[in-house]
Amino acid sequence: MKLALAEVIATSFYSGYAPKAPGTAGALVGVLLVYLLHRFTYFTSFHVLGFVLLFLIPSVWATNVLIDALKTKDPQCVVVDEVLGQMLAFVGSGLDQPLTYLLAFGFFRLFDIYKPFPVRQFERLSGGWGVILDDLMAGLYSAAMLYILRNFLNLPL
Residue 13: enclosing H or E segment and its boundaries? Predict the structure, then answer.
């Protein structure tokens, strides 16, 4: 039962088993969650921050369970880190413009793949914290980029 629950959480309802690019699949789940939460429950970007914080500890737990079960440091099927990081990319943005979703996704994947300083350093932490915190940093970088584009360049985001 513990492993089954951890698998559902860590793979974000099995999206981590996508045959190609599971990280991208996880990020798309994050985009979809933000859109659905905003559209149907009127979440703002700061509600999204609360959602990420609420699910952080259960996500670390689930990731640790899968790391132990699969005997690997960062299992490819674990995508809850991408979901939370992608969701964090929306903090401080308006959620009504399609361009926001496109840029948030693009920036997050860019920072998640290339891991600028200190993203890669967080990856070195052990267990679930290392798996998740590097993606949260990529999400913070993405949120900063959207904030700059919205507030200094006056893009409608």
Answer: none
Alpha helices in 11-126 (DSSP H): 22-41, 45-70, 80-88, 98-114, 119-123
Is there a contact between 72 and 115 (Cβ–Cβ < 8 Å)? Answer: no
The predicted model gives 85-112 an average pLDDT of: 96
Whether 86 contacts 43, CB under 8 Å: no
**pLDDT value of residue 122:** 85
Report the C-alpha gap between 47 and 111 in whole angstroms: 23
Q: What is the mean pLDDT of residues 111-136?
A: 90
CA distance 61 to 103: 30
Radius of gyration of the chain (CA): 15
Q: Give the global pTM.
A: 0.95
Does the structure show a pLDDT above 80 at 44? yes
Domain boundaries, the chain: 20-149
- The whole-number pLDDT of residue 84 equals 98
Q: How far apart are the C-alpha atoms of 121 and 102, rounded to whole Å?
A: 27
